[in-house]
Amino acid sequence: MSDPALANFSGIDLSRLPSIARREAGVVRARAVVASDASLPGYGHFVDDFARAEVTIVPWPVAGRRPLVAGTGVEGGTVEDRFVMERRGQVQHAVNHAVGRSYVTGWLEDPAAAREDAPIVDASRIYTHEANYHPDGGQIFFPLSTTPYVALLALPGDDVRAEDFVAFWFDGTRGIHIDPGVWHQPVFPVAERAVFDNRQGRVHACVSIDFVGELGVYVEVPLR
Questions:
Q1: For the chain, what is the radius of gyration of the CA atoms?
Q2: Going by DSSP bridges, is the β-strand pair 188-189/183-184 parallel, antiparallel, or unpaired?
Q3: What is the pTM of this model?
Q4: What distances in angstroms separate CA 183 from CA 29, 42, 127, 146, 160, one per listed residue?
Q5: Looking only at Cα atoms, what is the longest distance across the chain?
Q6: Which among 1, 25, 83, 197 has the fewest CB atoms less than 10 Å away?
Q7: What backbone torsions phi and psi does residue 220 show, to the nearest 5 degrees?
Q8: Does residue 15 carry a pLDDT above 70?
Q9: What string of DSSP letters covers 150-192?
Q10: Are 111 and 24 in contact (CB under 8 A)?
């Protein structure tokens, strides 16, 4: 079965990426942190039971001084399905079956030279070109197997910088609820392939940042 349509929030030409080796783009390495009850607040929280976990939904914004009627503005609810993360050669792919979109989320070599038919030389880090947040609600990723993974996150704010991103390492025994407004990419598994249960707001509003086009850099995400 073929992947859903490719979503490219940044709009960058993925066939003509700037090169790190040729100094056409710089690199900012995300700070690595072990996910814990002390390090996650502000970004999200652990999820131990996917079936019972609730996604935070943000009420629809009002334009004037009158408030929403109680219980309204949140009735879009949530959607859920599997989120598949898979390396194809040196390219990281992600498929979100809940919203019917697929993504290229990173490269394990210089993005300008990475190929899907070439072996991985260094799997200790991955380069990514964009991130996004959902103003309408949070998102839950829960691993179906005990596969360690990394969540790249930054605190809310449209003036975000590449240096603000933190790589949170998870041992694979617990999931994560990413809070509304928190910048993120689909999580990066340490293994070549991993499947996650995914639950998120049905509205699925996305606000994105193009690291390469706006800032002239890739964000390097440590995986070990």
A1: 17
A2: unpaired
A3: 0.95
A4: 16, 11, 16, 25, 9
A5: 58
A6: 1
A7: -90, 125
A8: yes
A9: EEEEE-S-TT--GGG-EEEEE-SSSEEEEPTT-EE-S-EESSS
A10: no
Q: What is the DSSP letter of 30?
A: P
- Confidence band, pLDDT 50/70/90 cuts, at residue 12: confident
Instruction: Categorize the per-residue pLDDT at 1 as very low, low, confident or very high, splitting at 50, 70 and 90.
Output: low
CB of 184 within 8 A of CB of 135? no
Contact of 176 with 53, CB cutoff 8 Å:
no
Q: Structure tokens of 171?
A: 């041992």
Asked, for residue 102, whether it belongs to a domain, the answer is yes
Q: What is the pLDDT of residues 157-191, one digit of tens each?
A: 999 999 999 999 999 999 999 999 999 999 999 99
Torsion over CA of 14, 20, 24 and 27, rounded to 10 degrees? Answer: 100
Quickly state the pLDDT bin for 119 (edges 50, 70, 90).
very high
Q: Over range 1-21, report the average pLDDT.
A: 87
Q: Tell me the CA distances in angstroms from 117 to 93, 110, 114, one per residue in order.
A: 14, 15, 9
Domain that holds residue 129: 28-58+74-222
Residue 210 in any domain: the answer is yes
